[in-house]
Amino acid sequence: MPDLEYEKIALLIAREISDEIDEEELRELRAWRNMNAANNALYIKLKNSQNFKSWLADREDVNVDEGWSAVYSEIKKRSRTIILRTITRIAAILVLPLFVGGVAYFYFDNQIAKKKINQQQFAQIKPGSSKATLTLCDGRDVFLDSINMLSLTEIDGTEIEKIQGEISYRKSDEQLMKQPVYNIINVPLGGEYRLTLSDGTKVYLNSMTSLKYPVQFGSDKREVELVGEAYFEVTKNAGKPFVVNTKEMKVEVLGTSFNVNAYEDSKNTVTTLVEGKVKLSNTQDDENVQILNPNEQAVMDNLSGKIALRNVDVSNYISWKDGQMVFYDMPLEEIMVLLTRWYSAKVFYMNPEVKDLRFSGSLDKYDEIEKFIDIIKATNQVNVRVNDNTILFAKK
Amino acid sequence: MHLSTNIWLKDEGGFKRFFEKQYPSLCIFADHYLQDKDASADIVQEAFVYVWSKREYISDAAAARSYLYKYIKNHCLNLIRDTKRRHEILFERLESPEFFRDNLIEREAYEIIYSAIKDLSSQNQQVIELSLDGLSNKEIAEQLDITINTVKTIKQRSFKTLRRVLSPSLFTFLCMFSEN
Predict the structure, then answer these.
(1) Is domain A78-124+323-396 in CATH 3.55.50.30, yes or no?
(2) Chain A contact present for B177, CB below 8 A
(3) Smallest CA–CA separation between B156 and chain A, in Å?
(4) Beta partners for A244?
(5) Distance between the two ends of chain A, CA-based, in angstroms?
(6) What are the tens digits of pLDDT across the range B134-178?
(7) A64 and B69: CB-CB below 8 Å?
(8) Cβ separation of A75 and B62 shorter than 8 Å?
């Protein structure tokens, strides 16, 4: 049983004594008590003012100030070592065009002093976290976060389990419903989520992404619909091809790992293949079929429907699923589109020409955006300022 | 609801307030395992240091509480195991999910009641305590020699601020609960 249910019971007990409880809650509380002897015993123990008073006395006895100073001195000690580690890490990961070794030393040295002032500026901009909304077949929405456990049952009997930032579907052998039962998972801005479909296929969903899929696959095909970006590790099944439908492109595979980037506001639909083989076609034109091999990428122009193939370093395109953001020789504007899907920030360009400045680098998704800003500043190509949750760029 | 209120994660002032609210009753939670107040305080402090170090991965205060509970439970059990102070039958009970559950529900329920009554006068506190014992408003009124309306007013007033604080989280878990 999840903690959530425990908290619910605690709340019902508190509501009962304050006369706030309504009929339905009262019924729920009674049902819980009658479920087993242990529940009822706990209820009786808690609804006893002597027990509460002794708890209260113990609570008063606790020395909060002493506790805080112990915790505070420990976290102070740690933050000093973390700052040092961060600096070495930034220096190690990032290769930037105008970055000269000698300058780096002085720059970062200077940064430590500035760090305190900067921290306040960035308080409004947060990295994302595991979160999503699951829409069940009957239209109900369930909010998914990263912590609590949850289990649900769809109308066809399919069990859905949620553990931390992941939900998974169990395969059921009997086909209970004639029509497939669909679920939709929606990952908001600043979110990410993982999903295991009933055939064992793993899907990593990036921010601002939605995926529609049947909770059990039919007998001939495994078909899902994607808007946004997802990385698929498809379970092999030669008799049942796996098909990802996006607005403009259809990707068909037998068993393989690949990334599909199909955001609605983007010019291209991009499929990157890690292993196996996939077949791509334009949704408008089934004849125009392309086969993709490992380390190849298909970029489809959404307007013309033309598909171009190229060889790429796949890790640049799939590292987001492992908590990294990688960009290689990418215009600032595109980098900021990526970043603002994850960080809750807005971007403003004082001079449009800075949008085309190109940068390369990688960053840890869970880091504060401050680190990215520091690095952009260090290139000395553009002025950056942060104002509340807006990042402003201006030419030098 | 999606925008988590994780300000406490980034700034020490917020974290301190979070600590002050959570720490005392978590010490009791740990003490139910250890029966040793000093050792309990140590483990609870370590748990907060742990949560602080993992703050980038923790979305909100509810998630942090979940981490705290698990950390405290595991470390209390480890300590008992390591110090060989354990009594087999007793240890089996401490290790059971039911013990963790009962301990957690006690803390959550009493913490809610505590925040409702902490600013009340001792007579008004008695109203809540008698109510906890299952007495009806009429019985409470008789016992304390006040009117039924006074009993009702005291209950309403004491839980009023609480209602506002609780409603968003209540909403979240009512939603999730009804899905099961």
Answers:
(1) yes
(2) yes
(3) 7
(4) A224, A251
(5) 58
(6) 888 999 999 999 999 999 888 888 777 555 444 444 433 333 332
(7) no
(8) no
